[in-house]
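Quick start: read one record
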Amino acid sequence: MAIVYRRNMTLLPAQPLLASVFSFLTLTAWVKAEDQPQWGVRFSRNMVSSEKGLPDSVDLATGKNVKWVAEIGTETHATPVVSGGRVFIGTNNGRPRDPRQTGDRGVLMCFDEKTGGFLWQLVVPKITTSVYWDWTGCGICSPATVEGDHVYIVSSRGEVMCLDVNGMANGNDGPFTDEGRHMVPADKEAIEPGKTDADILWLFDMIKECGIRQHDAAHGSILLDGQFLYVNTSNGVDDTHRHIASPDAPCLIVIDKTTGRLVARDDEHIGPVIFHCTWSSPSLGVVNGRKLIFYAGPNGIVYAFEPITEVTGDVQKLKKVWWFDIDPTAPKENVHRFTSNRTESPSTIHAMPVFADNRIYVAGGGDIWWGKRQSWLKCIDATQTGDVTATAEKWSYPLTRHALSTPSIWNGLAFVADSGLKIHCVDAATGTPYWTHDIKGEMWSSTLVADDKVYVGTRDGEFIVLAASKEKRVFSSTALDGPISGTPVAANGVLYVATQKHLYALKKSE
């Protein structure tokens, strides 16, 4: 992965990108060649991997192509990440590993990459305001982002955290030192942290500091760019699903990774027209020598922002470069009058925007729980400025139903799945369809392209491997032990797939 990434960097003009390249080199310097320390290809969010020699099938009964299996919680919606010999996965506390920690909790588990052995965990108490703040049993839904000795995560309590990659095994490093109080509910006595507990270095509470009213669950994959963390806030509707309790709260914020301080926020005033929740995480790309941050808003608009380059005394406002409305004829005012309307509603975007070849690929449309069923995969020219809604669309491909999945762009093809029980393969340049494949369950995860294969996991527990080509070819379809919400991840010759209860490390048998 890193080798491919460095090759791309050498094609960029040197002078205009000196600062950008320095930032990129700073990040890639610590990345082990085949690690996957962030969800999606670093920065661009493309769901592809340069890994080779991955299995094209799995047999749980015989153990064929199974390296190890680790028990996690009982409900898991996060995608695993792999870095520095460790695998990180968000889950719940359905099967407590610490007898002192029982009941519903958000959990981030850390395992040994080679053996699947348990190393340590972050345990976070539930928000008790109402179930719509922190849904029962959901646990930590956010994937981690790892850099060297630091793990960045959005907890189930809407906290952006920096953790020590070693946990408490090497002591409580601080400056945050109150883990014993933080890991238990307010009405319980603090406990003494042990070697298998997380070491919190700093935390930023988005609910307290930004006035966020998160809905259902906090969910965000943190984008790391040099010194700065770009974070989706999960701001959304209240319990009635017809009112925004925090209309002035941001949807996208920027935090200084060294201090945990808020550096910047969006100034788009999206809050009043959030139809359900703020779902999408940001991505990054270099467009004609200019670095841009891409963000798909809960109002169905894709934004390109200038990146933050320095810390100032005040909270900065992100500067908008261009914006594109994926559904310009949809309702834009009094949006909650369309709640539960399956034929007419505003559009929203759950998936991350993918940057490739000066284009943005994004899937969006009606909200899966409350909106219309219509959705599309769209390709946008990322080189323009201003309101590009009428000029930047390269093509639009209609999907079968609601779309939650981030697309995979590879070898001139675009792969994406939807909740209409289909996987789609289209031409990345034109949107011309090549094939579709029927699946048994809804897709909450995304496709992964690796080793000339497309890996897919469904909410029916179906794990599918197809050829990444214009001609449809199915290698295998296997029923795993339960629903799959997270995206498969490839790292160091191993494929990682999380069901609700288990994390599978799959490797081609010798």
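The domain at 2-506 is CATH 2.130.10.10 (Methylamine Dehydrogenase; Chain H).
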